[in-house]
Amino acid sequence: MSKTDFAAMSRLSADIDLHAEGKATGFVRVPHSVHRSAYGWIPIPIVRIKNGDGPDVLMQAGNHGDEWEGQIGLGNLIRALEPQHIKGRLVILPSANFPAAMAGQRTSPIDDGNLNRSFPGNPEGTITEQIAHFIEHVLLPTFDYAFDFHSGGSSLSYIPSALAPRNGDAARMAKIVGMLKAFGAPVSYLAAAPQGGGRTFTSAAARQGVVAMGTELGGGGLVTPGSLKVAEDGMRRVLAHIGLLQGAVPSPTPTRLTEIGGDDYYVYASDGGLFEPLVELGSEVTAGQPAARIHFHHTPWREPDMLTFKRAGLVLCKRIPARCERGDCLFHLATDIAGP
Predict the structure, then answer these.
(1) Predicted structure pTM score
(2) What is the mean pLDDT of residues 135-161?
(3) Phi and psi dihedrals of 114, rounded to 5?
(4) Which one, out of 146, 150, 174, 211, has a CA that is 20 to 30 A from the CA of 61?
């Protein structure tokens, strides 16, 4: 089946022309018949800014609804940019999983769908699967570049970072590393390419031949001045880097290029209880170093479980809520690399 056939299967549609010149705001309409509204639709905000020839760029946030930095940053960008500021076409989807964003949840309150685990989607599936299908098969094939702005959400906190999966195409990988450096987050990291095609937005972009990167901009359910500045300055720098944004942009900042690997980069809760971190976000740790204790407040006479790091590295990410269940991610590390 061709890409056109896949796109034609979608029930979703934008109520603005995504290829016309100028600036327009509107909604992607997701048909949703419920008790309150028999013939209703879910309004996912979408914006188009176009000025002549140049790169075609898609920017999105709110892939997970409780990750706020990208949503605010893209909202500020929408209000600031006019067609004369760019060369090419910019489409912005600031709250991609809109039901989740409105609920302040990682996943959709309608179907419990995790949009970033739902690609390539299903035009006949749940609401989240239909959104994923629309993004991968209707939106992405028309773009050269795509950016997906995440953070740690309610349960994790990250050093503000930019990220991308590795790619076997050396020329494409060079473009991606160039974008990471242009974005200029304090840390950038590369991850192993997903097996079996992958179910994330960056996997969807790769399947459609789109050069893409993402971020982890902070988290903890918060927005800080520092994390928002990383987001907004990085957005402008990377748009200028690929030739879309014209004029002056914030001065470049160096990024620490790292990678994440397999299970030994992570620390998971061994049991349900209370998580006591023994290191701070941004710490440099060694293999065997104590990482956390899990306390059992339901049986406080029981000795806490001691967890250790399996390898050395930078503490890139840390869990926020103290209450945890067995299998919850408590930390993940990154290690320095010289290049891609």
Answers:
(1) 0.94
(2) 97
(3) -95, 105
(4) 174
Same domain flag for 279 and 237: no
The residue among 331, 320, 151, 335 whose CA lies nearest residue 230 is: 151
Taking each helix axis from N to C end, the angle separating 68-80 and 225-241, rounded to the nearest 10 degrees, works out to 60
Residue 177's nearest CA partner among 236, 253, 255, 260 is: 255
Write out the two tokens for 52. 């002549």
92-128 residue pLDDT tens? 999 999 999 999 999 999 999 999 999 999 999 999 9
Q: Name the residue with tokens 């290829």.
A: 19
Provide CB contacts within 8 A for 331, sequence distance 6+: 266, 267, 277, 279, 291, 292, 309, 315, 317, 318, 319
Cβ–Cβ < 8 Å for 73, 235: yes
- Whether residues 109 and 176 share a domain: the answer is yes
The neighbour count for residue 70, using CB atoms within 10 Å, is 31
Q: How far separated are the first and last CA of the chain, in Å rounded?
A: 34
**How far apart (Å, rounded) are the C-alpha atoms in residues 13 and 154?**
31
137: pLDDT confidence band, cut at 50, 70 and 90? very high
Q: Taking residues 180-198, report their average pLDDT.
A: 89
